[in-house]
Please model this.
Amino acid sequence: MDAFAQIAKEGIGGRTELLCVPPPPQPPTHSVTLECCSSSPTKVAPKMQTHAQLQDALQEMRQRYAPFLAELAPALESMRQTVTLSDFRWKREEDTCWQTVSLPHYGAPLGNASTQYETEFTLGEIPAGRRVFVVVNGADYKAHIFVNNHLAGSHEGFFATFEFDITKWVHPGCNTLTIELENDYVMLGNRTERSEAVLCGDKIYAATGPGYDDPQLGWHHCPPGMGLLDTVLIETRPEIHLQTVFARCLEEEVEFWIEVGSCVYEYRNISFLLSVYGQNFEETVLEEFPVVPSTGKQLGVGDTYSEVLAKRDGTLNAQLPLPCGKGQNLYKVRIPATSLRRWEPDAPWLYQIQLKLLDETGSVVDTHRSQFGFRTFRQQTEQVPRGMFFLNGRPIRLRGANTMGFEQQDVMRGDDAQLIDDILLAKLCHMNFWRITQRPVQQKVYDFCDRLGLMVQTDLPLFSCLRRRQFCEAVRQAEEMERHIRSHACCILSTYINEPFPNAANHPNLNLDRSELERFFAAADIAVRLNNPDRVIKHVDGDYDPPSSTLPDNHCYPMWYNGHGIDIGKLHKGYWMPVQPGWYYGCGEFGCEGLEDWTLMQERYPASWLPSHGEPDSAWTPERIVRAQTADFYHFFYDRPDSPEEWVEASQTFQAYATRIMTEAFRRDDRMISFAIHLFIDAFPSGWMKAIMDCRRTPKPAFFAYRNALEPLMISLRTDKTVFFSSENASAEGWICNDTAQEGDFLLRYELLCGGRLLRRTEQMVHIEANRACCSGTARFRLPEVDTETRVTLRAFLLSGQECLAWNELSYNVLPACGDEPELIVRLAREISDEDLRAAENGGILWVDSPEAGDYSVDSLCFSVRESGMSPLHFASPKTGHPWLTGLGQELFRHWYSSAEDRIAPLADCTVQAEGFSTVLASRNIGESGTWEPAAVLCERRWGKGLIVLSQIPLSRMRENPAGRILLSRIRA
Model:
């Protein structure tokens, strides 16, 4: 079992006495009944389901958002001379020969290793009053910068821009720049290209990154490589210069935080000319508005001596100038914002700040420009329930996806067009945010999210734990992260750690325990909010050691790491995991693996991953794909396919099914205000195949399933049972899931169809509320009489007059009536007697009902029962060739209803091994070697004239589910 599966298997710890399980919502008691109808079905536009349709929609989206990419602000002359250094010589620490590389450059070596970059740059004479800086936009991990063999400075981290004044070490003519990088093992532990051993170190890095083009290690989730990820600049600038401008957006004002750097110790008087223009639309808000920094003089309490002096020199109530001193200086200027256009996801209007820095003579010595969007984003934490997000004063729920390097690869390749398309593809999928997972990324990613209206959550790169010796460094990097993202309207939320584990990941000698980690959160909060008082922070994404003092968030993979987080039947019913009372909550990760298309595998995969010449198709399994999980977990959900193409089809079909089930459950839960599927786009051909779109931007079926489930105004049809016999009664709850501001009374229509023919229909008036999910009641209907297995479809339409606002559908399998089950001798395993065995020998059928884990031996009957290696089973494969299962497909043996639980419940807790028995329903379980081995859920063997059946599925469950009753009816001695 790989590391991520092991994390899922261990589950959630935490202080359970401080948590509560949110009860599922109770649907209204009223219902409507569908009546026979001879009318035509309601016509609606079909939902998008093909790559070609997506490409057409993408072209329309490009045109729609093209105006927001415009650059309409006036040009601003730069006062700096900048040289971009692209070509370097590079070598590993142990190498003697240099390689020529171009930036960005990223990859191995991993672990405790060092590399060196070297290049030259040429300077002319440096004028008086000017300084030379080296600017590095991201160096992974510890960087030591040498100029002409002098150490200019060092930096730890991988995402931030840093710079050093190198004036005293440079000279006119040719100069040498050397960048030495040190890598390390990450705190969670990682292997290297040199060794399979997983070792732990001090690198502040989580588990996602840009990756690199190497199928054995670089494609996968996600090797902590090293390198220079962006640009390196040599910049000549004034000795007093503009550093950054941050537009802090208040309700009716914008407060500009202007940072000025000074390389001289003497105080210098400065001033500014401030202009604000529309960036993607034509507007002049301010033009060269003069700003002279000053402050009002204040005296300390009881400081009578200073008061006397101030009165004497006339400065008691005077405004004092604020000259610029050595280092970083912060000046704040407010302007009214009542007339500014709001930045909205559907209308991402942007402004451009233009600043001119004036010296004591009034001459312009430096200029700066940057974009900003006027918007507010806050979280309500004063009233219960706490945690709702508000964008521009309006409640908003976050619906999105995790990213894992594709966006960084876009920037590293210089492919702006692809980055734009990737953001638009997210919006076409009805996402409104990305979780930039477990790391900040390049500025260009945030720039384009600003321009195209996609909100962003950014994570500090911590996973599982924080080493004690890195406490202060982590606080520093939290501040650095905030400074990295704070100017972007898209950046609405930050987190500090992914999936922290109880007991300091069981290394409290090395790592902070939870109480200490909470102190880190408090310290990081202070550092972040000193730089942006309005930042919304969620301390933890995927909390394995809850609670936190901020929005609860759990990761949830019940449809992949079988039962992880919460049983799928409970999730489908409306339950959630234990959380801190009084809060809304989120799910930062959920998902399911779907293999890449067979054509992509053939084009890009190493030969060793593919079938060899002459090898039968059935011999191939996804275990040949490095780090793929499908070979380990498919048996929890579907039959074993017989060829590579079938593996692709089966995995992608199930991924789409799982995506719909989980996403619609989240949409129905009115307390769930943030969720993100894991993942959106794969950066490489097999980087992390939970992605719903491959590296060529070909959508998997799960993309369309997710898109449908994210419709801002959506109908969800929920039932716990979709398989019935002919003419039985069925039902479904009708949910209106509304993420919009629309509200009012509308018509909800239900229709039952078979083969395109309308069988039944009914209508009801429903009231929908803004930003709410609620159940409108239950639709009940009688299924048709059939003589073969038949699929019927329940459709629901939300209508406003003749306009269809939303529609959805749910399929039911209807089976012809079956015969009666034979007379059974039903026993628990420890009740079996010699008399029972003799009865079987004489022609009886002995049914051993759901034996508990253990080894059993009665006379010559011996069998072994083991608990499932990863949570109880919701699926048992009928693909065994056993005659009792002829004509029964895998869909009939998945997610059975339990009347005792009144919901979907697991089929079995255990599997059975019994020599001489034939497997009827199959699964797998972890063997003594630690690998998954074939095992039976239900098996049988002849016993004299009769039969013995060992069933892990309780007989009561068999009898209340149609496939079980059919199987029982076919048992004959």
Summary: Residues 606 and 948 are 48 Å apart (CA to CA). The chain is about 20% helix and 35% strand. The chain has a mean pLDDT of 96. The first strand starts at residue 31 and ends at 33.
